[in-house]
Amino acid sequence: MTSSLSQELESRFIDLFSVAPQVVVRAPGRVNLIGEHTDYNDGFVFPCAIERSIWMAASPRSDGQVRAYALNFEQSSTFPLNAIEKTQNPDEAWSNYLRAIAAILQREGYTLTGVNVATYGTVPIGSGLSSSASMLVAGGLLLASAAGIDIDLKRLALLAQRAEIEFVGVNVGIMDQFISALGQRNHALFIDTRTLEYEAVPLPSEGVQIVIADTNKKRGLVDSEYNTRHSECEQAVATLKENLPSIIALRDVTIEEFERFAHTLPEVVRRRAKHVITENTRVLESIDALKSGKLSRFGELMNASHKSLKDDYEVSCVELDALVEASRSIDGVYGSRMTGAGFGGCTVSLVANSAVEDFKARVPALYKAATGLDTTIYVTKAEQGAERLR
Ligand code: GLA
After folding, report:
1. Is residue 228 part of a domain?
2. pLDDT in tens, 5-40
3. Residue 287: what pLDDT?
4. Structural domain total, the chain
5. Ligand 1 atom nearest to 39, measured from its CA
6. pLDDT above 90: percentage of residues in the chain
7. pLDDT for 178 beyond 70
8. Catalytic annotation on 176?
9. CATH code (residue 128)
């Protein structure tokens, strides 16, 4: 599938620009198995890249312009590299990711060249599977490659994160860009978001599948609520610091320390901190469980993560809760939870092979009965991160 899509992109590119692309890249979306809202607290995450990507192709131009075409929307957008501005035109909104990463690369001192660009993606947009991170990572790899720059993928992830924070205005952590850039086929990455060290942990090659289900609920509040959660965590650190002067982030607070000083925090902030601190321990335990083949334990930790996100962090919603409940009612589902920022988007479930057909057959009706909405189900393997294909 991957190679035929990139071939199709190349042939459309020739139709559009009457020249063959010199560079073709791909960057995937992601699903996070566990470790939610921990990354901007210097904590642990455990995502994998999914079998849905953004492909981009480019050929050089000598006039310093970026002339881009999005095949998904059949829309074009052109901007000059020497005066990049965010476009307000809704038909060209997709190009803001390309504009953002081009601006950041140049600000970092990279000399880019003008390019024709065609892009096509299979990452659902606005579903919490990181279509924006994959646009930024693919765009950065494309622009750098077209200019003959061999960019380090970890550095690219950090620049893509900065582009998201500065241009999109959401104070995100590093997880999405990092896994899109550095994901490994058949592995999830256990990432320490403080040191950016990571370990690729093999996912079981037989017996289970990762099943993503989309609530198909548009994520309205996510940006402002996300930024609010981020500042509540900072507030927790500032207050806990009075008794724990050496802490820098919630990552540094043990459960015992938290229990000792929880009373110093306002009620809402206390629950936010509790989620982050307990979620970090769940990630560590889940990796041990996975490594020793204890899938039931891994599933229990996924379920506990969802409960904590729902009750303490308050980023779930009725649709996510209904989908999780429907998924867990299927025999052979080890665990199910919301994934990503929340307020809509997708759930992730770990499902025994033998139960996947049952899941696909029964969860949509259960979810529809509870919410009136249709779900979309994606069964995925862990995919390789960003790569240059040509
Ligand atoms: C979004 C952000 C990530 C992370 C998740 C929640 O996907 O982009 O950095 O914070 O939410 O875990």
Report:
1. no
2. 889 999 999 999 999 999 999 999 999 999 999 999
3. 98
4. 1
5. 10
6. 94
7. yes
8. yes
9. 3.30.230.10
pLDDT single digits (tens) 124-170: 998 999 999 999 999 999 999 999 999 999 999 999 999 999 987 88
- Answer whether residue 95 is part of any domain: yes
Q: 287 C-alpha to center of ligand 1: Å?
A: 19
Question: Does the CB atom of residue 39 touch ligand 1 within 6 A?
Answer: yes
The average pLDDT across 103-132 equals 96
385 C-beta closer than 6 A to ligand 1: no
Determine the average pLDDT of the residues in 56-60.
98
Averaged pLDDT of the chain:
96
- Which residue's CA lies nearest to atom 8 of ligand 1? 172
Tell me the residue range of the domain where 45 lies.
Answer: 3-202
3-state SS string for the chain = CHHHHHHHHHHHHHHHHCCCCCEEEEEEEEEECCCCCCHHHCCEECEEEEEEEEEEEEEECCCCEEEEEECCCCEEEEEECCCCCCCCCHHHCCHHHHHHHHHHHHHCCCCCCCEEEEEEECCCCCCCCCHHHHHHHHHHHHHHHHCCCCCCHHHHHHHHHHHHHHHHCCCCCCHHHHHHHHCCCCEEEEEECCCCCEEEEECCCCCEEEEEEECCCCCCCHHHHHHHHHHHHHHHHHHHCCCCCCCCCHHHCCHHHHHHHHHHCCHHHHHHHHHHHHHHHHHHHHHHHHHCCCHHHHHHHHHHHHHHHHHCCCCCCHHHHHHHHHHHCCCCEEEEEEECCCCCCEEEEEEEHHHHHHHHHHHHHHHHHHHCCCCEEEEECCECCCEECC
From the CB of 279, is ligand 1 less than 6 Å away? no
Residue 229 falls within a domain, yes or no?
no
Q: pTM, whole model, 2 decimals?
A: 0.97
Distance between Cα 216 and ligand 1 center (Å):
18
Whether 77 maps to a domain, the answer reads: yes
Of 176, 214, 252, 321, catalytic: 176
Kindly state the percentage of the chain with pLDDT values over 70: 99
Question: Is 129 a pocket residue for ligand 1 (Cβ < 6 Å)?
Answer: no
**Ligand 1 pocket check for 42: Cβ under 6 Å:** no
| Predicted local confidence at residue 167, as pLDDT | 85
Which tens digit of pLDDT belongs to each residue from 255-283? 999 999 999 999 999 999 999 999 999 99
